[in-house]
Amino acid sequence: MNVYKYPTLDELEVLLKRPVRDASELNATVSAVLQDVRQRGDAAVREYEERFDKVRLADLAVSEEEMTAAEALVSEELKDAIRLAHRNIERFHAAQRFEGEHMLVTDGVECWQKSVAIERVGLYIPGGTAPLFSTVLMLATPAKIAGCSDIVLCTPPASDGSVNPAILIAARTAGVSRIYKIGGVQAIGAMAYGTESVPKVYKIFGPGNQFVMCAKQQVSLHDVAIDMPAGPSEVEVLADETSNVSFVAADLLSQAEHGTDSQVLLVCKSVETAKQVEAEVERQLARLPRKDIAAQALMHSKAIVVRDDKEMMEVTNRYAPEHLIIETANYMELSQKVVNAGSVFLGSLTPESAGDYASGTNHTLPTNGYAVAYSGVNLDSFCRKITFQHIQPEGIRAIGRAVELMAEAEGLDAHKNAMSLRIKEAGNP
User: Fold this and answer.
1) Share of the chain above pLDDT 90, in %
2) Summary mean pLDDT of the chain
């Protein structure tokens, strides 16, 4: 890890910048695929599946027979783990239900909000070397609680046309309506525009590589909503002299193994702590099956040494990490000063992996500094708030003249007239 001691504010500005890649070529490639899917539907999807996933598909949808076969391919122990995680995720998200309050804002003027589920949502679940069946639970569970009537899932198939059985088990557990063997940009296009097989959805959720994320951003400009913009996954760990160095190193590595572009940041109050963590990271790295991926991520990781808690939290809130792990002695005190973060993990016994799988919180979180403005996925992500208002005669008398004056001042005479007619109708008390 690269160690930086007591950086100035200007130096910190540079240190905390995420890498920026030239996306012009990426945008052009993604746009071409999206337009092809939009114009040719299933035929284009099948061609891209053959080109990118090396599979020729007769049917894009996962059959009931395949769902049943998955039951025998997943161990009972893993199925129990999936069910446990689902229960906790369900409990946590069910507690987020919104109850709109009818409010009399003034005499005769009643206003309220109603939470309504998005009718059809699309979930993208990566496959490949790390099939994220846990993300199925994180997205489909709140969608089901919210009341989404159609939950569509796309995930890339293996070269033999199969879908990872754990993804299928998680989908059935969480209540997914239909599953398609489609990956990459073509999956995003299919859900955004609709094809002969895949229905058009109203909002797309889920992580993916740079092509998938670029596709989500492009379709969000005109055609469909998305959960949030995103970049590579990231973690920041706060440590002090009381921290368990093995735990800190393990937490940094658990993020680094996600991908070569993962962001890993350690913030501590002594050079000695940074050195101890670095040595432990090297020791644990050597034993990881994905050590090559983690090693590349660690090449651009940083350890920042600060003077005190105040500076520690300044760094944190400037960086706005996707995952923030506070492993200091005063972790609860520091947690009160967190302003920008996706999800926070407190104390030495709360690894990020708990939130990734089974603690109940959602692991679909804002990255790339977007935590300054975005929340992670939650129940509200799958809902819309519709406002209602009901005005009685006394309400017209209470606000009518103000509406007339404001409409007139804006030069909108029809607006004024719509209220003026009602003022005449309501009359005086």
Assistant:
1) 92
2) 96
